[in-house]
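Quick review question:
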């Protein structure tokens, strides 16, 4: 089995590259020789992965966080009509929300042990059609979670930071700063062809996995292989309500909050009724509503514990 690793060695202030040099001998002892591909710009990992699959690499490892994993997933799923490559993850950083969904350890040694064991499982993904800033349409696959409303703005602010204090602190700081000036987005939602009345939201999270924002359990019932999407609609919260509701985001009891509604669906369509509403896909701020999200069952073969 030919193994490729895709990473951004400059991420986390260069720590990813330094960690890679340290653990590469350990990975090659477990998997044999590996080819390392380094990303140079956002989206580059998609092309690197797709080229690697077409060149005969049958195992692609994402060495990084959710953004790197998202690009690897997209590269595998766009490489051909029936990609045979399996995807693995060596998580880096405190963000890495999808590794929480899988029960993957954060340390590289533990992740390499899971890769060596070689257990794989077919997972669902989300196919997301969304709108770019210039009004053009785009499509992206998501493995973990897509959100819109305040989530899109927070992701953009957090990703502009160098994250010197780690993913969780950076995300919480971005959330608090964004909340001070956020007045809510008015959107229309359609779930499996059934329209929901226009609603003013703080955020809507559509989860294949349960975690978001460096450990927030915004879709706590989501399962990565059930063929469905979990939708958490957080209606408009005041800055004070947002500040005092933080415990619901982390303790898995978000649906006990009086301003949160739970839905389960295979397809969601959302449009902005007033102004614009920003989106994020697997933690990356990529565009705006309107958006269409569909589950693609058992689309990706992934190495799991």
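Suggested answer, residue by residue:
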């Amino acid at each position: 089995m030919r193994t490729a690793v895709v990473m951004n060695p400059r991420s986390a202030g260069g720590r990813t590259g330094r960690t890679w040099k340290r653990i590469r001998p350990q990975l090659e002892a477990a998997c044999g020789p590996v080819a390392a591909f380094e990303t140079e710009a956002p989206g580059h990992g998609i092309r690197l992965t797709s080229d690697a699959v077409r060149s005969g690499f049958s195992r692609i490892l994402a060495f990084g966080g959710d953004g790197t994993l998202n690009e690897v997933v997209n590269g595998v799923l766009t490489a051909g009509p029936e990609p045979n490559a399996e995807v693995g993850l060596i998580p880096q950083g405190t963000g890495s929300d999808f590794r929480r969904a899988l029960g993957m350890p954060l340390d590289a040694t533990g992740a390499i042990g899971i890769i060596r064991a070689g257990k794989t499982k077919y997972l669902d993904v989300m196919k997301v059609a969304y709108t770019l800033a210039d009004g053009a349409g785009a499509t992206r696959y998501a493995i973990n979670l897509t959100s819109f409303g305040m989530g899109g703005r927070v992701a953009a602010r957090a990703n502009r930071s160098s994250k010197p204090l780690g993913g969780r602190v950076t995300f919480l700081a971005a959330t608090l700063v964004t909340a001070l000036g956020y007045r809510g987005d008015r959107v229309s939602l359609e779930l499996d062809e059934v329209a929901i009345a226009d609603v003013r939201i703080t955020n809507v999270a559509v989860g294949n996995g349960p975690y978001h924002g460096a450990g927030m359990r915004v879709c706590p019932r989501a399962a990565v292989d059930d063929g469905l999407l979990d939708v958490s609609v957080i209606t408009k919260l005041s800055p004070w309500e947002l500040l005092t509701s933080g415990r619901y985001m982390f303790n898995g009891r978000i649906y006990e909050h009086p301003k949160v509604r739970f839905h389960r669906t295979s397809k969601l369509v959302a449009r902005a009724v007033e102004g614009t509403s920003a989106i994020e896909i697997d933690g990356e701020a990529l565009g705006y509503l309107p958006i269409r999200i569909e589950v693609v069952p058992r689309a990706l073969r992934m190495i799991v514990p």
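Why it works: The two ends are 19 Å apart (CA to CA). The mean pLDDT is 90.
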